[in-house]
Amino acid sequence: MENDVLENAQGTPNRRPRVRRRVLLASVAGCAVLGGVLTLLPWGSSGTRAPAPAAGAQALTAVTTGVPAALPDLALLIDEREAHLRTHPRDAKAWAVLGAAYVEQGRRTAEPADYPKAEKALRTSLKVRPDNAAALDGMATLANARRDFQAARAWGEAALKANPKRWTTYPQLIDAHTGMGDWKAAKRTLEQLLKLHSGPAVQARAAAVYRDRGRREDAAAALSDAAAAAAAPAERAAYTERAGQLAWERGDLDVALRHFQEAVRLDPDQRAALAGQGRTLAALGRTTEALNAYRVALAKQPLPEYALELGELYESLKMGQAARVQYDLLRERVAAAAVGGVDEELVLGLFEADHGDARSAVRRLQAEWRRQPGIAVADALGWALHRAGQHKEALKFAQAATDKERGGTVRSALYVYHRGMIERELRMAWPARRHLLEALRINPRFSPTRVPVAEAALAELGEPSVEDVPKMDGEADQG
Fold this sequence. Notes:
This protein is mostly helical. Among the domains are: 2-40 and 54-130 and 198-298, Alpha Horseshoe (Serine Threonine Protein Phosphatase 5, Tetratricopeptide repeat), CATH 1.25.40.10; 367-468, Tetratricopeptide repeat domain (Serine Threonine Protein Phosphatase 5, Tetratricopeptide repeat, Alpha Horseshoe). It has helices at 2-9, 55-65, 71-87, 92-109, 114-128, 133-145, 149-162, 169-179, 183-196, 200-212, 216-229, 233-249, 253-266, 271-283, 287-300, 304-316, 320-339, 345-355, 358-371, 375-387, 391-402, 413-425, 429-442, 450-461; strands at residues 21-25, 38-42.
């Protein structure tokens, strides 16, 4: 059986019959964005199903084809590969599989210690066989998981040089280009990927690019198709969770909540969906349920951003001590992540800007911007500069995060809110009012702490006057 597993590690995935499924995408009335509840309904003959492949084989197929895998299956695969490598230490492909499995496990559990293990396995694979595209691909995946997008791009390009037809490398390059702020390269890479391969993993990757380009309808449709075609519950849950994120971003809270609940039903280890439930339930005013969802998510996947969100929820409830506990946890997780080689400067900078030392946030985020100038970093740096009193400089980065001409096409209520508040501080009443209103239109309940601030700022700005209205291009002064 182990030989069969190794044969699959060389690129031939285990095949199994699939029960065909359809996903019914129920549109929300009055909403132009496709994004209804994904309802999975079996259809076709009621014949006897063939037995599913062993759990380790399922995880092997997942990690070698770049799709999400179930945590118990991953643990079994890791045990199998480690046992095999004790007697076959020169098996480069087995080392590459082990490294990829550790990356996926680290990503799913937010356990930074998995990443050095993954790196050791992948570098051993490359030492045994330097032209090993699977290991090069794995190194790109690891670098993306660590938020080292420059390294991810270099490893991805090396993997494609070794094997230009290896489609699983292209999603890693898309993530790397996006993290570096090169959205044109991300678009080109997606086009190349779509020519090489199809299937749910590719559809989900396309959805991420569509979302980043502001094409939310296309993103929702692609995720619907991906979830319909996914073979394993863990994979289907991951795509359903992403559909929930899209619904949340556009303010469709009931739709988002159903997506998140379905994702957890499919895969109880889908902690991102639990955090999504917390976010959505808080916006719906169901705070006790929201707190419970966040706590469960943090218990199994203690990401710093979850601790930040929960801390801010406590702040909105006037529970300062509980908020400080979460902020302490955030700092601990950032420090632990750094030991594992994970860059959490973005979330730490956002935290420091609002709840700590704004000048420290500026220094951190300026270094991050020099290293990997993505849209998320532009937004965070602009906000940190604003909080540190450097409003004119802040506006340049806020504009970079929100102007289509500069690649800022993500429809983010938070980004637009940041820009509006910076413009308000600069006494730019008309654009400030426009952007604050736009933030509330994108998602009227995007943050328990920021929405009341936006509403108060709009009330202070009042209704626009004739003097506030900006002149159209080419309009001459009449006075």
